[in-house]
Amino acid sequence: VALYDLWIWHAFFGLPDTLNDLNVLDRSPVFDDIISGVAPQVHFSVNGHEYGLAYYLTDGIYPNWSTFIQSIKLPKGPKAKQFAKRQEGVRKDVERAFGVLQARFAIVKNPILLWEKAKIGKIMRACIILHNMIVEDERGTYRYHDYVAEFRQGEGSAHVDAPVRRRRTNLQEILNARTRVRDRKIQQQLKKDLVEHI
Questions:
Q1: Which of 37, 112, 121, 140 is 20 to 30 A from 190, comparing alpha carbons?
Q2: How far does the chain reach from its first CA to its final CA, in angstroms?
Q3: Is the pLDDT of residue 13 over 70?
Q4: CA-to-CA distance for 141 and 144, rounded, in angstroms?
Q5: Do residues 190 and 46 make contact, with C-beta atoms less than 8 angstroms apart?
Q6: Is residue 80 part of a domain?
Q7: CB 74: neighbour CB atoms within 10 A?
Q8: Quick one: three-class SS letters along 108-125?
Q9: For residue 157, is pLDDT > 60?
Q10: Residue 35 included in any domain
Q11: pLDDT value at position 45?
Q12: What is the model's pLDDT at position 19?
């Protein structure tokens, strides 16, 4: 997961051709804090509807969960076309960040099949840490487009609570949280609302 200014804040590694996006998703800790109840609570409204989970802009391979918003493959109408254009532009930041990482560190670009997985992971994390240090050092010395501002609704429309929270231990609460993360109806409504909002 990368920001528009190339800052990488989550990555998952494995051997080439052994993991696709869906396998990585099931093994990634991205949603663990949400499901276990320790992630900050997010509240925002779009087009008059209230939502309680943050979402990621993704490509079409990801499932239709409430936490993933894919682009529209064949947009119909000006609003859908505008949404697809903006969503794809923001999503490309991840691809751009990985391209910069490959250009910056040859070890990331070339296959390293002979090493142990643990060592490969440590090397990748080290490259990302160095990359983020460079990005942090260079912030303010280059111009970038504020994509995030384009998606803001205005003051008071989104709210994040970050109090200290206890981890869920009740199995039913954990299952309910997992169901909310994977809710297709919420995803469909949020996508419609985002298209209308833009």
A1: 37
A2: 23
A3: no
A4: 10
A5: yes
A6: yes
A7: 7
A8: HHCCCCCCCHHHHHHHHH
A9: no
A10: yes
A11: 93
A12: 47
Query: What would the two tokens of residue 4 be?
Result: 């528009």
Pairing of strands 56-58, 68-70: parallel
Among 97, 93, 34, smallest CA distance to 67 is for: 34
How many residues appear in the chain? 198
Residue type, 58: T
Does residue 1 fall inside a structural domain?
A: no
**Which token pair is 126?**
């080290």
Residue with tokens 């989550």: 10
Lowest mean pLDDT among 11-15, 94-98, 156-160, 183-187: 156-160
User: Which residues share a beta bridge with 158?
Assistant: 44
- Domain boundaries, position 147: 21-197
Condensed to tens digits (0 to 9), the pLDDT of residues 35-91 reads: 888 877 889 999 999 999 888 888 777 889 998 888 888 899 999 999 999 888 877
Q: In the chain, which ranges are E strands?
A: 41-46, 49-51, 56-58, 68-70, 158-161
- Beta-bridged to residue 46, according to DSSP, are 49
* Confidence grade of residue 23 (pLDDT, cut at 50, 70, 90): low
Q: How many domains does the chain have?
A: 1
Do residues 15 and 117 lie in contact, with contact meaning Cβ atoms separated by under 8 Å?
yes
DSSP for 21-43, written as a single string: HHHHHHH-GGGHHHHHT-SPEEE
The two structure tokens encoding residue 141: 């010395």
> Does the pLDDT at position 192 exceed 90?
yes
Instruction: Examine residue 2 and state whether it is found in any structural domain, yes or no.
Output: no
